[in-house]
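Fold this sequence, please.
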Amino acid sequence: MINRTLSRGTIAALATATAVAVLTPAAQAAPAAARTAPVAHTTAALPAHLTVDGYQAYLKKNWAKGGRETSAAFKKLTPAQRKKFLLHLEDRKIHLALRNTVKGNVGHRLHIVNSYDQDVQLVTDVTSRIAGDKVATATLNFTVSERIYGIPVTTETVTVNFETRGHAKNKNAHAKVTLKNVNAAIAVKASKPKAVAKGAITNGSTVWTATPQVRAFGKKVVKDQLIQSAVTKTGKTFNGRLTNR
């Protein structure tokens, strides 16, 4: 049995306020050490919007990280579609909508496609397998991705490996994260993934932070991603969630 939920969300994009420090004559006379103190990061230096030429240059810089395939697909779009593609990349509401909650049985694949609008799809995949080793090691992959005109632009995955056989206190678990991001409007980073095995329950988790690279995106977005498995006498189940903080 699979339970899934995903909504577009009604959270409005928030404009970020930027502050520019101006030195007064008194400040200019301050000691050099004080004048050279670190300045807090602002978005003032960021470009307002993405451009077609700028995005193509970005893809070339990230050629080996998905840029090559994305560039080839992007060039096949019409000029009007390219402009809309960039507007979708900058849309914070779409990135907030990149979330899902799922559950199912280990050993069965999940593939869910939800349409945000006629151009954008939010796709969730869960794959799992159990190895034939003596501890019956299970591997769970939980992925949520955004596609524009069928082109993947941000894909976030948590993978957890854990033992399903043997004494609970001796079970091991490991987690890793995989990111594919060719959305030039944001830089995405994951925290160090955590894996915890306690009794019949195993968790693999991380925190994703999307930092704006253009002012049009607005504030940063922080997400929690978790894949959890329970091994009981009645079977092996999982539940996963990607949620906004």
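The helical segments are 25-28, 32-35, 52-61, 67-75, 79-90, 92-97. The first helix runs from residue 25 to 28.
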